[in-house]
What we know:
A: 7 helices; 80% helix
Amino acid sequence: MTDAEPSIAIAPRTLFIEFxxxxxxxxxxxxxxxxxxxxxxxQWLTEREFAELVGVAQVFPxxxxxxxxxxxxWRFGGWRGSLAAISGLVLPSAVLVVCLGALYAQFADHPIxxxxxxxxxxxxxxxxxxxxxxxxxxxxxxxxxxxxMVAAFVMQGVxxxxxxxxxxxxxxxxxxxxxxx
Amino acid sequence: xxxxxxxxxxxxxxxxxxxxxxxxxxxxxHRYLVESRGWISSTEFSSLYAISQAAPGPNMLCVxxxxxxxxxxxxxxxxxxxxxxxxxxxxxSFEIAAGKTREARWPLxxxxxxxxxxxxxxxxxxxxxxxxxxxxWADITLTCVCIIVMLKTRLSPLWLIxxxxxxxxxxxxx
Lengths: 181, 174
């Protein structure tokens, strides 16, 4: 996808349904499911376009998948598409999470409920790692990309540098390196 | 200030502070909702957060539960709107501006330049999640199985989450 007109237009109704489907099947984070739905199942974006969309979604403030839905909805369906995508992502799952909150109060002490939730967290961690590896494979293999990726990983995952500081250091560097190209 | 307006303004501010994702603001929400306002106890805050993580849907929906706990349905609606609104308008402005200036190089530079950082951060998130969730060798094995299956097949991630729930429920994990 370039900045020109979208090659495909998607009906707001489809966007609502697809994003609702992603949200409702995304346990422990929606990102792995969105990649699967957008790149593999619907083929709206290539792997690399998806990685670039995630990049913008992460750097702008706000929840990453919410930002993605707003931008993708706009690209494929204008204002109505944007509104449809974010509503599909947030509305059904917000209703569900509040219902679960009410339910959980009754079953929180049940050991099986607790171990199931823990097992899901273990699997979810693997899914996030696999998604990151797939996106990494889609990027160009240059030293700039490798340097920025490793720096971001080490600063957040190992050294626990505050996110604002990581951004302040790496974003100008990344933009400068890309602009020089 | 009326409770609902206070709540809305707080989450609108959090929306704009959530650089890198909603999880970046959880600490600040704890400070405000628990310590400063006393609307939620610390224990309740943790359990509400855990429920939101176990439920399907974007992680940021923990704010719907916080809002619901503080002010019922109206609280849930305002917290969600506040958390989504400002940031969505901002990112949409970028998308629109990038689409209008088609010859300009900057939107492409931003997209291409920032992608490696975001992939590195996502890898770090996965690493930290695994670090927190994986207690024994069985856990680490399951995480690795999920990584390999995701990389080698086109299986829907939902099946792997179900596998995790099953393994947990059968007490296979440590």
